[in-house]
Amino acid sequence: MRSRVWWGTTAVVLGLLMAGCGNDGGGDGNKDTAGDTAAKSLSGGYPVTVTDCMGAKTAFSAAPRKIVTSNASSLELLLRLGAGDKVIGTGFPPGKGTLPAALDAQAQRVPVLGRTVIPKEKLLGSGADLYIDTFASMGGMGGGMGDAPTEAEYKTAGIEHIYLKSTACASTRKSPVTDLSAVENDITSLGAVTGTGAKAKELVAGMREKVDAVRDAVGDTADSKRPTYFFFDYDAGTKQPTVVCNRQVANAVITLAGARNVFADCDGDYKQVGWEDVIAKNPDWIQLGVRDRGSEAANKKAFDEAEKWLKTNAATKGLKAVEAGHFLRIGSERTTIAGVGNADTVQAIAKTLYPGKVD
């Protein structure tokens, strides 16, 4: 078993599954390399070996039969890969109707082991042989989140424990992430582990098609002409904003959409700043980063609240984006957590910022 990868922020920090050995797709051209895992994924062969952020290996001699996912994002990936029938439980379940129609019915049939983090005893006693972890350390957040099992306890329970490296390894990257290669490798690796490599290849191809279309449309825009962009993590708290830095998946999403993350000069994944720092950046556009509330009506209410806060708060109501009403209502998860939705968010942002140029 591997050593656990730990980190924390005051936001709900979301960390997920591993690709192969190598770097995590930064902007320096050093891609994650899935190595033998990628080749095995395409051939459907075993054994398959994956690594965590520290390079520790986990080997699979066959596809897992009983999988538990820690939240809706990893559950959605398994459903899209066609491995949903192997999922025996999840934490942070998706609200009814929040996933695409074809996946929603499947998702609603998955037993809910925890409305938030799955209790330790319930996870260890679930009968799973694989746990896909959306959380590394909660960073001492407390609040009834529960104790996480140790690696020894996972081993005793017969559960392999893996993460998505594109998010879990964010704080340890050596360079900014400006593309989705790490996310693509997560999908490839998960396809290899579950024996759904062909579908993983199809999902990655679909993501690349969308991102390439945006790049073709706005890629020649000079950096000085690209609008500045602030991801407002409303759910992380408004007293002191938590921003996405240049190692977070969101930085790649924003960059690929033809925008400039106003906190791209921050090395790491997340950071707490002061509102004076946001005011100094004075962004052209603000994304209202609201986490899924479980229904369209509840999500709309949350977006409305986030927008109202910015418009009425003395520190933010004078921001250029606020005065112009330049808000994007795009959920946090599809921006900051690995998934095929990252490419959709690239497309959605670009359509708003470059009207008429992106289909």
TrEMBL record:
Domain (Fe/B12 periplasmic-binding) ranges: 66-357
InterPro entries for the chain: ABC_Transporter_SBP, ABC_transptr_periplasmic_BD
Pfam name, any one: Peripla_BP_2
Highest taxon, organism lineage: Bacteria
Coiled-coil regions listed: none
Matches recorded under PROSITE patterns: FE_B12_PBP, PROKAR_LIPOPROTEIN
PANTHER family linked: IRON(III) DICITRATE-BINDING PROTEIN, VITAMIN B12-BINDING PROTEIN
Similarity field: Belongs to the bacterial solute-binding protein 8 family.
Protein name, UniProt field: ABC transporter substrate-binding protein
Organism in which the protein naturally occurs: Streptomyces sp. R41
